[in-house]
TrEMBL record:
Assigned GO CC terms: plasma membrane
Pfam entry (one): SSF
Origin species: Amycolatopsis echigonensis
Keywords in alphabetical order: Membrane, Transmembrane, Transmembrane helix
Protein name per the record: SSS family solute:Na+ symporter
Alphabetized Gene3D superfamilies for the sequence: Sodium/glucose cotransporter
Membrane-crossing segments per the record: 18-35, 47-68, 88-109, 130-155, 161-180, 192-210, 247-268, 289-314, 351-384, 405-426, 432-450, 462-484, 490-510, 548-564
């Protein structure tokens, strides 16, 4: 894949821009060093000692997701599909985030598990636990590679370094603060990075809208560009799904994206859940994803809109957008992934450019750090401590957590080259989510609400669901299934969910379930109602701290946004 520096499209950064970037990196590493002084046990390193307030974990929760998927992937979709991309936020994220806070977190936090795979072990036993632990670890390395690749692409644009040098340098920066301070360093940097990202992308959106003549000017330009008016309305989203049928598109978005992919990602993905589990109380843990949902509603306006603007003002897209929509190679060497970088190149003056670049780097670093911190927790606790070295002193696992972070970074360097082969990084990541998250959600939700589900069903359902998603992907790649856009991931996720449920039910009916006494706190019907209620005393008092009320406000606002756009 050609790199922009090779195509003579370098960002024209000045000394002031580099000074701003240097200051940002010093600040990031300083936070890692300060966080290191608070680490005295493996729990401190891997779960922040469960001591953080809800506003910190809430911002970290959303910042951990502001990586390659959110920033470069969604802006790429803005170029290719336009407003239908908002479904990844208002349909494909917020409902699941609210469900996580209201329903799932009492089980996670209340059971005092250290990871999602550990919850699987308590509910289904070692076989499902090991399958989930291995698949999750593999997914995090692949996704970390995607974040690292995009981080390296910014370094490449700035300095013109070769791809492998850019990747190694970018990886070293993230490794430095994650290995120093563990999850606390990652979370506090994610809070910082959230504000840096907003400060970087908001001016780009405003300047871009001024450039095209405001919202109406953007509408006019998009209408007369390749893709046309389909990019100006979120529903039915035919161009996004590639189904060519309004009913099937809506069904795919609501069921494939809004239910299977979304709930599979937000409710069972330990990258996100880990942030809530670092909270100081059950109430704070429940509020964490709900607090994160407020900024999540507004993120489309600073990532998708700039992508749409880039599609109608950047010279390379004016020439080659039609080729990119047809999934062909652009004559200029650009891809949809380059949207924000090219828009920054064309619109932002020096000084502001440095802040914008810092914002991009912050987003990729937040995403990669989240992947690394969740990987080392799952590997250390769920794989190594459980199956390899069970009874070592805590210092052993603290040291192992740091070594695992280094090893994960090296592996991510390898998977970054895999991610570099994708013209649209969001498509690549959605395919991964359909492999790993969709079947896990099916197993999880069935096991939580159906006490009859057995241990054997836990692991067989996961394996069958993952295998079916990979099969759909392979058939699509081979041309056997005519799926365009990001319809492949929607169909694969839906298939994985359905196959997992069918296999799990069949195996459960043929095998022996656990007794009810072993499922208290793990199955909804067997959990005391008091354990699921909001504690409104002490520091959790006040209407603005009630998870149910906050979730209701978010839901109303989200419905309004869907109606407006």
């Amino acid at each position: 894949m050609p790199f922009l520096a090779d195509a003579n499209l370098r960002l024209d950064a000045s000394p002031i821009d580099y000074i701003e970037l240097a200051f940002y990196f010093v600040l990031v590493l300083g936070i890692g060093y300060l966080a290191r002084r608070q680490v005295s046990s493996s729990l401190d390193f891997l779960l922040s000692g469960r001591s953080l307030p809800a506003w910190v974990t809430g911002l970290a929760f959303i910042s951990a997701n502001l990586g390659a998927v959110e920033v470069m992937g969604m802006s790429a979709n803005g170029v290719l599909y336009g407003l239908p991309t908002v479904h990844y936020f208002w349909i494909g994220a917020i409902p699941a985030m609210l469900f996580l806070g209201l329903v799932m977190m009492p089980f996670y936090y209340g059971s005092k598990v250290r990871s999602v795979p550990e919850f699987m072990r308590r509910r289904f036993g070692p076989a499902a636990h090991l399958v989930n632990g291995i698949s999750f670890a593999a997914a995090q390395i692949l996704i970390a590679g995607a974040n690292l690749f995009l981080l390296a692409s910014v370094v490449n644009l700035l300095l013109g370094w070769p791809l492998w040098v850019s990747i190694v340098v970018a990886a070293a920066i993230v490794l430095a603060y994650t290995a120093l301070g563990g999850l606390s360093a990652a979370i506090y940097n994610e809070v910082l990075q959230f504000f840096v990202i907003v400060v970087a992308l908001l001016p780009l959106t405003i300047v871009g809208l001024v450039k095209v003549g405001g919202w109406q000017g953007l509408v006019d330009k998009v209408t007369h560009s390749p893709g046309g008016t389909a990019q100006l309305h979120s529903w039915p989203g035919d161009n996004l799904t590639g189904f060519g049928n309004n009913f099937l598109s809506v069904l795919g978005i609501v069921f494939g994206l809004g239910f299977v992919l979304s709930f599979g990602y937000w409710t069972t993905n330990f990258v996100e859940v880990q942030r809530a589990m670092a909270s100081k109380s059950m109430s704070a843990a429940r509020r964490t994803p709900i607090i994160g949902a407020f900024p999540k509603m507004l993120v489309p306006f600073i990532v998708i809109i700039p992508g749409m603007i880039a599609g109608v003002v950047v010279p390379e897209y004016l020439k080659d957008k039609g080729l990119l929509l047809a999934d062909k190679t652009a004559t200029t060497g650009v891809t949809a992934n380059n949207a924000l970088l090219l828009l920054m190149r064309d619109l932002l003056p020096n000084g502001i450019l440095g802040i914008a670049i810092a914002g991009l780097l912050a987003s990729f670093m937040a995403g990669m750090a989240a992947n690394l911190s969740s990987f080392n927790t799952v590997f250390t606790y769920d794989i190594w401590q459980t199956y390899v070295k069970k009874d070592k002193p805590d210092g052993y696992y603290l040291s192992l957590g740091r070594k695992t972070t280094v090893a994960a970074t090296v592996l991510a360097i390898g998977t970054a080259f895999v991610a570099s082969q994708s013209a649209n990084i969001l498509t690549y990541l959605q395919d991964l989510f359909s492999f790993f998250n969709a079947p896990l959600f099916a197993t999880f939700i069935l096991g939580m609400f159906w006490k009859r589900m057995t241990a054997a069903a836990g692991w067989t359902g996961l394996v069958a669901g993952t295998a079916s998603a990979i099969t759909i992907w392979a058939l699509s790649k081979a041309g056997v299934l005519a799926l365009a856009g990001q319809g492949t991931s929607f169909v694969a996720a839906g298939t994985a969910f359905a196959i997992d449920i069918v296999v799990s039910v069949a195996v459960s009916l043929a095998t022996q379930p656990k007794p009810d006494s072993q499922l208290v706190g793990l199955v909804y019907s067997l959990t005391p109602r008091d354990a699921l209620k909001h504690d409104d005393t002490g520091e959790n008092a006040g209407w603005y701290r009630k998870p149910g009320l906050l979730a209701g406000i978010v839901l109303v606002l989200t419905i309004a946004l869907n109606i407006i756009f």
